[in-house]
Design a protein that fits this description.
Layout lengths: L8 H13 L2 H14 L4 H17 L3 H15 L5 E2 L2 E2 H24 L19 H11 L3 H4 L5
Antiparallel strand pairs: 1-2
Helix pairs in contact: 1-2, 1-6, 2-3, 3-4, 4-5
Length: 153
């Protein structure tokens, strides 16, 4: 039976993992599965890379975070300001802000004899512009995380 909305359950799960749980490793797992199923979409890969960038930053892997944010920016740069119900303009701005902080830290670290204080991790949210997607994410978010995995699949 066809879905009444255009959003795959894994995509909705990705949104909840990103925005509610801030579980960027699981975001990667959820989106990678969808990315492979949907023909390796650059949009999905860019979203996946944004999540992995945050995962690396949170785990103090600054060079890994920079690498993934740059890759995500490159993938997402060809898409309009809003795609798949998400505000990609804001996502690109958030990643650019993160890149600026991380690059400045890395430059200070290599140009100074004293260790530079790393920038505090700052999560950002995926801004949902589509009411249907927001409703689906809200409904999934109230389900305990351990029970979400196959909900709606």
């Amino acid at each position: 039976m066809a879905s009444a909305h255009p959003y795959d359950a894994k995509f909705v799960h990705f949104i909840v993992l990103f925005n509610v749980d801030e579980d960027y490793f699981e975001c990667h797992e959820a989106m990678e599965e969808l990315w492979l199923e949907e023909g390796r979409s650059a949009l999905y890969q860019g979203l996946l890379q944004a999540a992995v960038g945050l995962h690396h930053w949170r785990n103090d892997n600054y060079s890994g975070a920079v690498k993934l944010f740059v890759q995500a920016e490159n993938k997402l740069s060809v898409y309009p300001e809003v795609a798949m119900g998400l505000d990609l303009r804001q996502l690109r701005a958030d990643m650019a802000r993160c890149l600026s902080l991380l690059r400045a830290h890395m430059e200070r670290s290599t140009s100074s004899d004293e260790p530079a204080k790393p920038p505090a991790f700052r999560a950002f949210r995926l801004i949902v512009k589509d009411a249907v997607l927001q409703s689906l994410a809200d409904a999934l978010a109230v389900i305990p995380p351990s029970q979400r995995l196959h909900h709606g699949d």
